[in-house]
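pipeline/complex-builder :: batch 7 item 3
reading input block
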Amino acid sequence: MIIKEILNRRSVREYQEKDVSKEDIDEIIKAGQFAPTASNNRAIEFIVIRDQQTKDKIFEIVSQEFVKEAPVLIISVSDTTQTNCPVQDLSVASENMFLQATALGLGTVWKNFEAEHTEEEKIKKLLGIPEQYKAINIIPVGYPKEKLIPHTDEDFNAQKIHQEKW
Amino acid sequence: MIIKEILNRRSVREYQEKDVSKEDIDEIIKAGQFAPTASNNRAIEFIVIRDQQTKDKIFEIVSQEFVKEAPVLIISVSDTTQTNCPVQDLSVASENMFLQATALGLGTVWKNFEAEHTEEEKIKKLLGIPEQYKAINIIPVGYPKEKLIPHTDEDFNAQKIHQEKW
């Protein structure tokens, strides 16, 4: 039986105005901290943004309505002086956070930083994140506006499984 | 409450000789397929290896005993003609697979491909994986030899959470 949060996790881009508690955000970040990191470097830190002015400035950089509308944004950063695998570590932690948010009835989505628009650099500057930290995405968190449809076997393709070799 | 598989997932490098069923491996891969991918590219394919000769050859490349000893190895690959985010997508799918394996009482670990030893290239050649596919890790799957200790709040560091800015 597939873990129910894996079935229920969907990308959510429209959020209710309802606020998200500090306890829920802490729990989501805790799940992120329990993710594996390369050689157990544990070099990820988390920035939690609720201030509307900051969210508006982030919107100016990434041009996605949901970063203005979500009650909370989480940006995770990995210290590249501690690991050679910041992208992998941040991705894995992101998935744990997505799943934990799902467990709490919350919605999230991966807003990727677009390299061609130097979004990572602009966000780091805005938030005062030191140069050595890598960031790859923004995770907005909020209560989904619409009911989500869980994954089913229709999303499973057994033909993508190769036995023993390609 | 943190999702129990997130609490219980630990890196496992020693496996019982007991085999792992095809049903369990399919379920783990299904969880991997239910992971989000950039722009929903769904360009990940999975290679399942049980043949001892192949595992021995993989050991010659990556020099980790557990790739010989685990009953099953899963190698996921992402089609770089379909996505600019193969590392992120493979990482996120890996975490879903780790968690689903945990739900099934199985152990896993992320064996990273070391760039300086061109491990990715050698594995792709061994398995006949086309050039355009990116691989980042091997996921061995087996029943853990030792009892695992779940994460606790000792693994949580609230000081890594920054409010509003760095």
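note: The longest helix of chain B spans residues 86-103.
queue -> next item
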